[in-house]
Amino acid sequence: MWIERISLKRFLVFQDAEITFCPGLTVVISPNEGGKSSLMRAVVTALYGDATSRRREVKTLRRWGSGSPPLIELRLVDSRGAVTIVRDFTERKQFLFRDGETDPFAKGKSVDEALATYLSFPDENLFLRVCGVRQEQLVVADGSPALGERLEEILGGGWGEATPAQIQRIVEERRRELRRGIDHPAKPANWGPLRRVNKEIDDVGVRLSEARQTGARREELLRLVATSKTEIDRVANEHAHLVERREQAERYRTLQRRAAELREQADGIRRRQERLKDLLGERERIRAEGDCLPDTLLSLSQPQQEEIHRNLILEEALNAELGVMREGGGKRSGGWMVPVSVLLVAGGILGTILAGRWFLLLLAAGIVLALRFAVRYWKQRAGGAYAGKARDAESLRSRRGEWAGARSLEEAKSLLEEAAQWRRRNEAVDIRLEEVTGAVDGKDIHQQLLSRLDDEYGEAAAMWQAARKEAESCEPFRLDADELLRLERAIQEMDARHAELEGALAPLERELAGLPFVEIPPLEEKFSALCEQRSHLERRIRVLDHLLDTLHRARRSVAGFLAEQLPPRAGEIISQMTGGRYGHLSIDPLSLHIEAKPAEGDIEPSADPSAVPDTVGLEHLSQGARDQIYLAVRLALVDLLGQQTAPPVLLDDPLVHFDSERREKAVEIIRRFAEKHQVIFFTCNPAYAGVGERLVDLSEHASHLGTDR
User: How many CB atoms lie within 10 A of CB 90?
Assistant: First the structure.
């Protein structure tokens, strides 16, 4: 990962500047107060600043005399491509663009989350402590923090008085102060807080024990009163609970009835709706059946249909009578029947009188024969009316043809009967529709009624559902008659128990009021406060113990990491930098003390090998050697912690205390280091102008610079 370009507007000493870097070693040359610190701060602000912040520190980034906050754009390149960071402190906005895209893929607070996938270190402080080597940090002199502790500051995230080692010393001192007089004998004037509290607890405990003996009875009575009141409260609460349960049971029953009424109402509306639909469907079917009947027949009124029915009956009678006439006119006159019938009647009468009743048969035969003759006679006399009756029958047949067509008389009768039945069914349906709707006909009226019934049913169903759900919510309180009776009995028992407890409490309170008052609560409060104070002190000691243990483990973890991983890398760099004079470094896992192996030229040839130390501390080395070892360790630390993303490194005149020979070697080491990490080398010395792949002379931006801060 490397920084390709940064554009600045109104940032510290820069009014409007654009500076480009190379992926390897870029040398930035500027005289003192020429903009090096401003440029380094601009890079860090672009990577970790927050343009949306309203903190007071943001105002310190504004160029002197400028009326607007700064604007920073930084182009960052890694294996995934290039991204551009825009932090506009004027609008309090920030964006992150991918290369070639005009729309940001992150903005606002999400910019820092997206940048976390590109950057090796989560915050500005850790980035500066690992990747930013400033000139003032190279001064590892006597009285300054040991180099090991300074590395521990970097990995532990602390600095100044907040380093792990300094915190450990402070915690150990606090713990000794708290336990003074307990771990070791001491005069009372020198006791620590815990020892003084223990002594005061013992004194107050004796006084409290004596007071408690005097007030034992009072305490017992207080306990009895408190117990009685607690029991009274419990009974009262249980009584209230039972009463509430009864009320809920009654409410459930009311809701059940209400739900049933609403259900019946909804069902009634639904039945009426279904009945209306059935009647409308039945009427449609009847009218469809009426399409098969003659329109002339269906259009007749009831009197007209009755008249047609009478004509059919009359036509049928005329047809029958004409048939009889036709049958009688086709036979002989039958004149022989008269004498024969006279003889039979006379013989029957005479025989019956003279001989007996058997001659009644002759009399009967004579009478039958006479009757047949009379009938035939009258038929013959009626022959003149036949033509008139035939005309009447033809007239009736013609009328029948007007509505029955070519149908026979029987078919016409059946057709008339079907029409009568259809009319009766249609009238019955209309009557029922009128009963349901109040209107016999009118499709719009029926549809409006159906729609209104549908709305009424939906409303009634919704009300029923709401009442049902409300009743279901009270389902746990449902009680049958026996359970309700038992509940009433339990309420009565609670009333009786409450009265009994109230009666027992009264004498206890009277006895308690007659006892002398003993001042125990102040002693108890003081004793409790002292115990709480002791507990607080003991908790503080336990916290300090835990903190010490955590610090020990953390320091051991950091020290183990440093002692194992850092010396080989740093030793290789310092060996190249010193021409092999120092090639081995060691870090003590407990003290984090860094030592170097003595150079061969520093050992007397005649010296006793047993008197020569394996390693020497940095305090025995020159200032230049210490600076070189620190620079080597810092470069090794960057290489160790930035293996994944290879972060850029910012060097601020790190070679000030180097001699010319080691400066050249250090420059060569930085060049090789820049093959893996981008290095931006800030210096005020023009001699470094040709050491990098790219040179940035801030004096070329003189028109954009003001007074550095």
Answer: 14
Place of tokens 């003390």: 593
Strand order in the sheet with 81-88: 14-20, 2-11, 71-78, 81-88, 93-98, 106-107
How far is residue 301's CA from residue 121's CA, in Å, rounded to a whole number? 104
Question: Residues 476, 482, 486, 488: what is their CA dihedral angle, to the nearest 10 degrees?
Answer: 90
Burial 521-535 (b: 16+ CB within 10 A, else e): eebeeebeebeebbe
Residue 5's H or E segment, with its range, is strand 2-11
Q: Which helix (H) or strand (E) holds 97?
A: strand 93-98
Phi, psi of 698 (to 5 degrees): -65, -15
Give the pLDDT of residue 141.
43
CA dist., res. 593 & res. 591, Å (int): 5
State the Cα angle at 36 between 34 and 39, rounded to 5°.
120
Give the separation between CA 186 and CA 558, rounded to whole angstroms. 38
Element of type H or E holding 459: helix 443-473
Task: Give the Cα separation of 121 and 644 in Å (integer).
Answer: 11
Cβ pair 4, 77 in contact under 8 A: yes
With left for phi above 0 and alpha for psi between -120 and 50, is residue 246 left, alpha or beta? alpha
* Residues 526 and 205 sit within 8 Å (Cβ to Cβ): no
Q: In the predicted model, is pLDDT for residue 565 greater than 80?
A: no
Asked if residues 323 and 331 have their Cβ atoms less than 8 Å apart, the reply is: no
Alpha-carbon span 202 to 481, nearest angstrom = 66
For the chain, give the mean pLDDT.
77
Phi, psi of 258 (to 5 degrees): -60, -45
| Cβ-based neighbours of 213, under 8 Å, separated by 6 or more | none
Write down the pTM of the prediction.
0.47
Question: Are the C-beta atoms of 617 and 593 separated by less than 8 Å?
Answer: yes
Token pair for residue 97? 């663009």
Q: What local confidence, expressed as pLDDT, does residue 142 receive?
A: 45
* Burial letters 447-470, b for 16+ CB under 10 A, else e: eebeeebeebbeebbebbeebbee
**Which domains can be identified in the chain, with CATH numbers?**
2-120+642-704 (3.40.50.300), 221-331+383-516 (no CATH)
Amino acid identity, position 626: R
Tell me the three state secondary structure of residue 389: helix
Name residue, tokens 């002190």: 537
**For 595-609, what is each residue's pLDDT tens digit?**
777 665 555 555 555
CB-CB neighbours of 691 under 10 Å: 17
Compute the distance between CA of residue 500 and CA of residue 232 in angstroms, rounded to an integer.
9
191: left (phi over 0), alpha (psi -120 to 50) or beta: beta
DSSP code for 705: B
- Written as one string, the DSSP assignment of 672-704 is HHHTTS-EEEEES-GGGTTSSSEEEEGGGGGGG
